[in-house]
Design goal:
The chain has 516 residues and is α/β, with parallel strands linked by helices. Helix content is 37%, strand content 20%. It folds into two domains: 285 residues, Aldehyde Dehydrogenase, Chain A, domain 1 (3-Layer(aba) Sandwich); 186 residues, Aldehyde Dehydrogenase, Chain A, domain 2, CATH 3.40.309. The chain has a seven-stranded mixed beta sheet, with helices on both faces. The structure holds 2-aminohexanedioic acid. It is an enzyme of class 1 (oxidoreductase).
């Protein structure tokens, strides 16, 4: 471990979170085991090996499934508000571990420390949200057409919920799913990204404390640090009622088809290709802040990252010049150092994809007004640091239609708002969108049914940074899933309609007579 990283207290953080030099990647609660191969987690911050993890083998998988099924039989009998109490305790633990977990997220994934802490805050927020929802799992009651009959609906837990998450939010997405799945009475099995296994082990260690302190059975919360073959097993397994998948559209398409094939349920959070429309009535200062944070925050590796700016011709040059100036001031470097704005990409594969996208863009005619570059030299030894860049493009370029998980921002000029909205919608993805305007008519048109076709549409806020409480997710190739707010708890339950006859007759519905 380099001296520099020692200064940031990483060793102590790993110790506090129960991360050892060698870790077991399977846990069903208090028990840890691992029969698979070993993977190594390297930090994109400095390229150092953080720790090793022994992954889950096929025999571990079956043990986890069995533990989950057994735990479900018990857990579903605990009243929902009492399950909420368990989630409340997780929220408390997360408050206690916030600094350590935030730092680990920053060190293993590469996002800024502030964003790492923000991610843990999202975990705390979803716990608070879920505690409240645990007392509100209500269905409708209806008036029956038959006398002396009562009709109502109720929601029951699904069973085992499988959660497959990506590297870019290595802890929050787990909690979005688990907090709601648990209050609904489900048990969960998490397959985290192999790029951030230590974040997953740390979360499981924290949850294990809660399970132990409450004497709860093994198998309510399990983790499988495993390769894609085990992931595929989970997707294909009839015993897993719901798969919540976060990742690329390419993989999500297969997951969705496989789960549907066995009539399982899925929640999909796939790629985004998010745009901000900057109109002639925009507050330019706010627009610049929103655009720059949206494009370079998490080094452009959020599914909500701003990838396109659609700018009115009358303010185009002003916005462009100010962006170039703002990009010139960006400090790129160790994300644990709070004076830096931009950290590294997750790994050198991501760096290659960034370079490929720039090359492709140039071939198609993209005009780079801030050039991209892979940074070299002191502080950049991991090879994962890149310069955020900006290019003027046409929306129809193939590369612009594609989500590149890197800080590449595309500028597109427009004349009328209708044209801007059409450009905004003219991509395969439909996650997040925004308009910057002080004009009520423009804002309302953007939010209307003739406006943005995305799951998230904001006014005078950028595309990223959605808060817990609103349903999060998107349309089209983003997959249609919703998480972490509103009434999405319903996705984690099965609905049942009940009709009760409290008379001595058996009248049939729809006026049908059946005399014996
Ligand atoms: C993601 O990138 O997968 O809205 C999730 C945001 C965060 C979540 C992003 N709250 O930017």
């Amino acid at each position: 471990m380099s001296k520099k990283v020692k200064d940031f207290g990483i060793e102590k953080t790993l110790k506090n979170l129960g991360i050892k030099d060698e870790n077991k990647g399977t846990s069903t609660g208090g028990k840890y085991f691992a029969s698979g191969t070993t993977i190594e987690s390297y930090s994109p911050v400095d390229g150092n090996l953080i720790a090793k993890v022994k992954t889950s083998g096929a025999s571990d998988y079956d043990k986890v499934l069995e533990a989950a099924q057994n735990a479900f039989k018990e857990f579903r009998l605990i009243p929902a508000p009492k399950r909420g109490e368990i989630v409340r305790q997780l929220g408390q633990k997360l408050r206690q571990y916030k600094n350590d977990l935030g730092k680990l997220v920053s060190y293993e994934m590469g996002k800024s420390l502030q964003e790492g802490l923000g991610e843990v805050q999202e975990m705390i927020d979803i716990c608070d949200f879920a505690v409240g929802v645990s007392r509100q799992l209500h269905g409708y009651t209806m008036h029956s057409e038959r006398p002396g009959h009562r009709m109502y609906e109720q929601y029951h837990p699904l069973g085992v919920v499988g959660i497959i998450t990506a590297f870019n939010f290595p802890v929050a997405v787990w909690s979005w799913n688990t907090a709601l799945a648990w209050i609904c009475g489900n048990v969960t099995i998490w397959k985290p990204s192999e790029k951030t296994p230590l974040c997953a082990i740390a979360c499981q260690n924290i949850m294990n404390e809660v399970l132990k302190e409450n004497n709860l059975p093994e198998g309510i919360s399990s983790v499988l640090v495993a390769d894609h073959e085990i992931g595929q097993k989970l997707v294909d397994d009839k015993r897993v009622a719901l798969i919540s998948f976060t990742g690329s559209t390419r993989v999500g398409r297969m997951v969705s088809a496989n789960v549907a094939q066995r009539f399982g349920k899925s929640i999909l959070e796939l790629g985004g290709n998010n745009a901000i429309i900057i109109t002639q009535d925009a507050d330019i200062n706010m627009s610049i802040i929103g655009a720059v944070f949206g494009a370079v925050g998490t080094a452009g590796q959020r599914c909500t990252s701003t990838r396109r700016l659609i700018i009115h011709e009358s303010v185009y040059d002003e916005v462009k010049n100010r962006l170039v100036k703002a990009y010139g001031q960006l400090k790129i470097g160790n994300p644990l150092d709070e004076s830096n704005h931009v950290g590294p990409l997750i790994d050198t594969d991501a760096v290659n994809m960034y370079q490929e996208a720039i090359k492709k863009g140039k071939k198609e005619g993209a005009k780079f007004i801030v050039e991209g570059e892979v940074l070299k030299g002191k502080g950049y030894e991991s090879g994962c640091y890149v310069k955020p860049c900006i290019a003027e493009v046409k929306n129809s370029y193939e590369i612009v239609q594609h989500e590149t998980f890197a800080p590449i921002l595309y500028l597109i000029k427009y004349k009328t708002l209708e044209e801007a909205i059409a450009i905004q919608n003219d991509v395969p993805q439909g996650l997040s969108s925004a308009i910057m305007t002080q004009n009520l008519r423009e804002a309302e048109l953007f939010l209307s049914h003739a406006g943005s076709d995305c799951g998230i549409a904001n006014v005078n806020i950028g595309t990223s940074g959605a808060e817990i409480g609103g349903a999060f997710g998107g349309e089209k190739e983003t997959g249609g899933g919703r998480e972490s707010g509103s009434d999405v708890w319903k996705y984690y339950m099965r609905r049942q309609t009940n009709t009760i006859n409290y008379t001595t007759n058996l009248p049939l519905a729809q006026g049908i007579k059946f005399d014996l």
